[in-house]
Amino acid sequence: MNSTVTQTNNHTLLNDIQTQGIRLEGISDLTVREGGAGPTDHKAVTIFDNTIMIPVFSQSAKESPFTASSPSKMGYASLKKDNEIITTIRFIGEPKFYKENSSDGIPFWKIARLHSKDVLATTVLQNCIRYKDKETSCQFCAIGESLKYDTTIAYKKPHHLAEVAKRAVDLDNISQFIITTGTPASADRGAKILFESVIAIREVVDIPIQVQCEPPNDFEWFSLLKKAGANSIGMHLEAVTNRVRNKIMPGKAEVSLSYYFKAFKAAVTIFGKGNVSTYILAGLGDTQEEIIEISQKLITIGVYPFVVPFVPIRNTPLANHSSPKKEFMHGILDPLAKALVAAEMTSETIESGCAKCGACSTLSTFEKKHIA
């Protein structure tokens, strides 16, 4: 193993691996998600003490110079680039809570999933008002695919989430719970069901919780969610310019960028600096400069811009869309990390959420570079 790479350039190598993916040699289990919402077609891998989600089914992964050998019983494998061993890595195994069922007989792995090494995540409503209409759907979204594969249920009731959270904490030392939802046909845009979910979870377990939804019609929902026990909230832009939003996510683009920023500012007053975040998919068509510019505006008002490389998902309109090049991601993540460190708003300072987990981007490793 090259110690120079490990000690000084691991953020660069990790970015290379995440953008290009890994070709697997005979690995198939429940921890590889085929289709669905959130980080899908990925595998959680610990490399140089950092656990990140690595694409394994994407087109780029099939052509990646990185390969992994079949893991040992403990999950250890050799990571190679162009057939030369780089280091030893560890695949995150199946959690214990996957083997249990809810009180009404639903397998826990259909209710919530393990992300990274110790993060529980779920999509409360596994559908969206825009998903089935090509005129309104987000072209990158596969929220309905996991229903088709029968790997989830359409609606996770509050008691489902409470039960799985309790067992995941007891059995697998889960550190936080991320709760997102498809957008329902209601003005609160999912805030109400998130509110009900958080209340139920808080009755049985005390872990950091992030809720995620589109900006609701009434910003009072932020106070209600906070009082219910949510530590942070994510409202995801995905694309940062109207040019790309109108093309890639026409329905969601009807919620204007100006309204998002009003919601961000209102949410920061409730949840605090850094505990409001947004997910930005680099590679959809926004330029480096556009992503950096809006990220700086977000940082200024106390919102954490979690920039991740876009990974195309099978059975979506963007299935054949290219992932961003490693150089493109480096050109965003390096200055962004520097700005976040300067603002004292890093993955280490926030309480919960995708940015706290950090596995879907190597942004936190770039932050460490600028902190060092």
Give a structural overview.
- There is one protein chain.
- This protein is of the alpha/beta class and 372 residues long.
- It is globular, with a radius of gyration of 19 Å.
- The two termini are 22 Å apart.
- The strands form two sheets. It has a seven-stranded mixed beta sheet with strand order 7-8-9-10-11-12-13. It has a six-stranded mixed beta sheet with strand order 1-4-5-6-2-3.
- Helix 2 packs across helix 11 and helix 5 (158-172) packs across helix 6.
- The protein has helices spanning 3-8, 10-20, 59-62, 145-148, 158-172, 191-202, 220-228, 242-248, 257-271, 288-300, 326-342, 354-357, 363-371, and strands spanning 23-24, 42-47, 50-55, 66-68, 76-81, 84-91, 113-115, 119-123, 176-180, 209-212, 232-234, 276-282, 303-309.
- The chain folds into two domains: 3-91, no CATH class; 96-371, Aldolase class I (TIM Barrel).
- The model is unreliable at 1-8 and 30-39 (pLDDT under 50).
In short:
The chain has 372 residues and is of the alpha/beta class.
